[in-house]
Amino acid sequence: MSDKKSFVMYESWGTAIEKMSNEQAGELIKAIYAYQKDPDAAPKDPALAFVFELIKQQLDADSQRYKEACAARSEAGKKGGRPKANASDKKQMVSEESKKSKCFSEKAKKADNDNEYDNDLKENTLEGVKEKRFAPPTLQEVKDYCLKMGYTHVDAERFIDYYTSNGWMVGKNRMKDWKAAVRNWDRREKNPHGGRSGAGRGWKRCGTRYGMKG
To answer: 130: which strand partners?
Structure first.
């Protein structure tokens, strides 16, 4: 770990921690603090392994960003700081920021819902109708989303493998919202004998449950 004197505890971790017993939560918090000095630190309870692994990845990413920021500041100091922009540069920067702000304000906001089925997403702009293709999530994005929402019944790697193998299709339709797919996957894992029809029928168990006491 880096030599920085502090680290960030994310509010999103609370969703998973609140489902733990006081003993498990205490062990996890101690492991997080111990990890700042010992990269081999880990909770003894195997039920905490999944959550701790995701938290470790976030801590490592924060530490790497800190190191890069320190290196950038050090390099800037050696060069005497950032060079001052001339009048022409300032005018260009203001113009570019104005364009970005205008473009952002013209885009329509869309609500997140549980509909996985859609061939294409389309958004209206002042220039006409612009087609927007679905972008599959990364493994880390799925893991972070599961940790944030407390979905302990979803195996992120199995989720990615399953939809990558079928071209991110849901039935005969292209997937619209991968977060909705994660939510539905978690529901099916909680109730594997729920008797869903269609895509739900024959759905194989894909995740490992990490039981939380309390």
So the answer is: 123
